[in-house]
């Protein structure tokens, strides 16, 4: 049984080392995702600021009226449309950055979920091992109790047979004194 306990401890320590290694790898991946997420957040913030700048320039373009009687010319409208095209391109970049952030968060969550799943499976395996160890201990205790009961019954039978033989010997001695 002691050999089993040593192997259980060895397996547990090996499992602990594996869990620590996987935890360290998970932490490394998590930190890389965090740095990517921070970079993506900064890039997104920069893109939003650039879009705001483009929007102000579009508004200035919209207010320009170089035509006769203060009307807008075709050139003014073309310039306004070009600013609108730049704004749309910037919006597309922002959307791509948001999708990248969503993918990073999704990947991060899935990695965390896998880490928790591994930890739960490892804990479940440890519980099974401990239950098995407890069952083995219970079996050992039952065997010892059975051996103890056998010893108690043998002692009881020996005691009763000694008492019975003693009584028979006493009776036989008493008869020989009475008759003899």
Report on the biggest sheet: none
For the record, give the distance between the C-alpha atoms at the N and C termini, rounded to a whole number: 64 Å
Low-pLDDT residue spans: none
Shape: rod-shaped
Based on DSSP secondary structure assignment, what is the total number of beta strands? 0
Number of discrete helical segments: 2
Q: In total, how many domains does the architecture comprise?
A: 1
Instruction: Report the structural category.
Output: mainly alpha
- Pattern of helices and strands: HH
Portion of residues in helices? over 70%
Strand content: under 5%
Coiled coil: 120-150
Transmembrane segments: 153-170
Protein name: Clp protease ClpB
GO biological process, one term: proteolysis
How would you describe this structure to a colleague?
With about 180 residues, the protein is mainly alpha-helical. Helix content is about 95%, strand content about 0%. The chain is built from two helices and no strands. The chain is rod-shaped. The two termini are about 65 Å apart.
Short description:
The chain has helices at residues 2-63, 74-179. It is an all-alpha fold.
Which features characterize this protein?
0% strand, 93% helix, rod-shaped, mainly alpha, 180 residues, 2 helices
List the helices and strands and how they pair.
Blueprint: H1 2-63, H2 74-179
């Amino acid at each position: 049984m002691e050999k089993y306990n040593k192997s259980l401890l060895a397996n547990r320590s090996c499992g602990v080392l594996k869990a620590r290694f996987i935890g360290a790898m998970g932490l490394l991946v998590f930190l890389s995702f965090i740095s990517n997420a921070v970079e993506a957040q900064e890039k997104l913030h920069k893109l939003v600021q650039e879009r705001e700048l483009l929007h102000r320039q579009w508004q200035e373009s919209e207010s320009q009226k170089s035509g006769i009687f203060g009307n807008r010319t075709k050139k003014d409208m073309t310039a306004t449309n070009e600013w609108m095209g730049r704004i749309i391109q910037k919006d597309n970049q922002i959307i791509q950055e948001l999708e990248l952030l969503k993918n990073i968060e999704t990947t991060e969550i899935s990695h965390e979920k896998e880490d928790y799943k591994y930890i739960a499976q490892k804990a479940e395996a440890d519980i099974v091992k401990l239950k098995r160890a407890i069952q083995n201990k219970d079996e050992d205790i039952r065997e010892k109790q059975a051996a103890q009961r056998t010893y108690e019954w043998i002692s009881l039978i020996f005691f009763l047979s000694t008492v019975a033989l003693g009584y028979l010997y006493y009776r036989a001695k008493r008869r020989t004194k009475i008759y003899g």
